[in-house]
Amino acid sequence: MAGRAGALPAGQVGLAAPRPDTLVVRLRAPCACFLALTAHFSCAPVRQDVIAAHGDAWTDPDKIVGNGPYRLALRRVRDRVRLVRNEQHARAAATRLQVIDALAIDSKATALNLYLTGDADWVNAIPAAALPRLRGRPDFFLNTVLATNFLRFNVTAPPLDDARVRRAIDLAIDRAALCRFVYRSGEEPARSLVPPSLPGYTPAAGGAGGCDAARALLAEAGYPEGRGFPELELLHAADESVRAVAEALAATLQQALGVRLRPAPQEFKVYLDSQKQLRYQVCLGMWIGDYPDPATFLDLFASDAGANRTGWKSARYDDLLRQAAAERDAARRAGLLREAEELLLREGPIAPICYRGQANLVSPRVLGFTTNLLDLHPLELLALR
Amino acid sequence: MLIYVLRKLLSVALLLVLVFTGAFFLMRLAPGGPFDAERALPPAIEKSIAARFQLDQPLLVQYGSYLADVFLRGDLRPSFSYRDTSVNQIIAETLPRSAALGAAALLLALLLGVPAGLLAAARRGRARDLALSALFALGLAVPNFVLATVLVLLFSFVLRWCPVAGFSSLRHLGLPSRALGVPLAAGVLEALGSPYIRTARAKGLTPRAVLARHALRAGLVPVVTYLGPAAAAILTGSLVVEKIFAIPGMGSFFVTSVMNRDYTLAMGVLLLYFGLLALLNALVDISLHLIDPRVELR
User: Fold this and answer.
1) Which domains are seen in chain A, by residue range?
2) Which of A28, A147, A284, B83 has minimal CB crowding within 10 Å?
């Protein structure tokens, strides 16, 4: 978009507002997921005149102007955000809850305690250790969401520049065991980058074969039974649960392939920086989809994508993504994206591990709560018994 | 006395400038910046953010203008993580909550620790002394998050006397002030087990005389010395206790602001803590001089 960074004068950008309640957007090429994209919170409108008049203070409760079913009543740093029904909203009459307090709780254990003592009606940050005891309760919800954990390979240096080595590692991961014994938060084993249950899209299936095929590939690449394979560093964020995954992964790969991976935890900002600078060999990563379309995942590994961080470039992959972006027919577009995903899983710099799960504990007195892939819960649809 | 106070104020100011300088350069040495995220920002947006927060200027220029803002105008600038709020505002909101909790804990520590310490000192060697000492040694040894968890289990879930977390009423202070106050009380008890008391008893004074004449006055010296710096830490909030009880104080900022590379918030809480520590130490010196005029003010 040349309109970014003021490269085009405002009049030439394809936006127009012919009436107070109508926004017209003219696109240069068809964009199948346009409505899904614009529904994302980053496209919520803000009042330019309010920002210009108040500067940094424009988000104060008495100054901020929004168009949602709730308005901001108060905001206390590290304590809570209080939402009050917006009586001027079109659906105000149908919105049952008048006041909602969103509590900022640091500790998952404290959040659970608040729920169990009745001081909170809905929590979504639950300690993994508590999940097994909560399953089966009628107020407990667990569903797979639009997010995938995967291994990232830095393909700019040997031995990971050889696709066979990457595929061997990919095939040797015991996903079912990791989900069942290490993650334990509702994850599902993943053989694709894009999670399933996106309407109109069937994700590509990863390579077939288990440890035997993995060992054969590794031998073909010149490291029979892992002999001669250098020790690799497995970068991950210094979080307790992530550390457990890294150690389990290293252990199973050692057992299956004879390759040694050394877990290397780094503080989160340093971990991000290391990825950006390609100062790693293998790293644990994840991506949460922003909108319900496969492109939100597949765009990650375009050659010039900022979040690529693997050094992998494929002209064919970029071309497939470009074709898909301009394709009007939904079925043909899905086919192109699938082909791109197959290419990514076959030759690319990732090994998917699992799709993430999201747990919610919701008090029985709350009505209208449902689960979905994006874990979105419109507040105006909720009510109390 | 006046000269002492003036000299102290000057040295505190100098200390703060030194802390400011050290922290400024050390923080920027660490890899990673405040705006690093999983999602890469478009270069144009990165540039405009850098310009707004003056991160694109030479380091010494940044240092100079920040120094002037903080020490000449008292402006700690906007926080990098709460970008629409100034650090002044954040501290103004969160410090009173941490301080309220801290004050409650200090009060508890004094109410528990001083009588217990004096009793133990007066009856040295007896069963009561040993029992109290053992109890409070436990209080010192048990980490405050373990104590907090036990308190929550007992008083919130089993007895249902106290709310489990939050800061909406005075009742909410009950458990966290105990979690903080008991280890403090143990420290006070420790401080009171001093040689003064033993000497007084050895001189043949009755326990009551020991308490009234000697213990209280002389025993206050180590208590005040201990509580001064401890108060600075307690009043600016305990990260662990605030996290467990969801107290919206400033304790967590000491760790999270550094992890998030929130340079301005980290600087703000650091300066506040050192300033408070230096002032309380000065108060301790003055108090000691008042309690025992033989202590010189230097």
Assistant:
1) 144-357 (3.10.105.10)
2) A28
Residues of A in contact with B248 (CB under 8 A): 76-79, 104
pLDDT of residue B213: 65
Closest CA to B227 of B169, B164, B179, B185: B185
Residue type, B190: E
- The whole-model pTM stands at 0.85
Coil/strand/helix, residue A100: strand
Pairing between strand A350-362 and A188-189? antiparallel
Q: What are the sequence ranges of the domains in chain B?
A: 16-72, 93-291
In the DSSP assignment, the letter for residue A122 is E
Q: Do B36 and A4 touch (CB under 8 A)?
A: no
User: Which of B36, B83, B248 faces A273 most closely, judged by CB atoms?
Assistant: B36
Strand partners, A103: A80
Partner residues linked to A236 by β-bridges: A265
Query: What confidence tens digit (pLDDT) does each residue in B142-198 have?
Result: 888 888 899 999 999 999 888 999 888 888 888 888 888 888 888 777 777 656 656
- Owner of token pair 């290293």: A250
A303 CB-near residues (< 8 Å, 6+ apart)? A312, A313, A314, A315, A317, A318
CA dist A125 and A111 (Å) reads: 7
Q: Do residues A80 and A71 lie in contact, with contact meaning Cβ atoms separated by under 8 Å?
A: no
The pLDDT assigned to A4 comes to 45
* Tens-place pLDDT, residues A173-205: 999 999 988 888 889 999 999 999 898 899 998
Query: What topology does CATH give the domain B93-291?
Result: MetI-like fold (1.10.3720)
Contact yes or no for A351/A166 (Cβ under 8 A)? yes
Question: Does the predicted interface ipTM exceed a cut of 0.90?
Answer: no
CB–CB contact A58 B84 (8 Å):
yes
From chain A, pick out residues whose CB is under 8 angstroms from the CB of B244. Answer: 107, 109-110
| Cβ atoms within 10 Å of A84's Cβ, excluding its own | 15
> Residue A248: CB partners within 8 Å, gap ≥ 6?
A177, A178, A181, A182
Quote the crossing angle between the two packed helices B87-122 and B127-141, to the nearest 10°.
Answer: 160
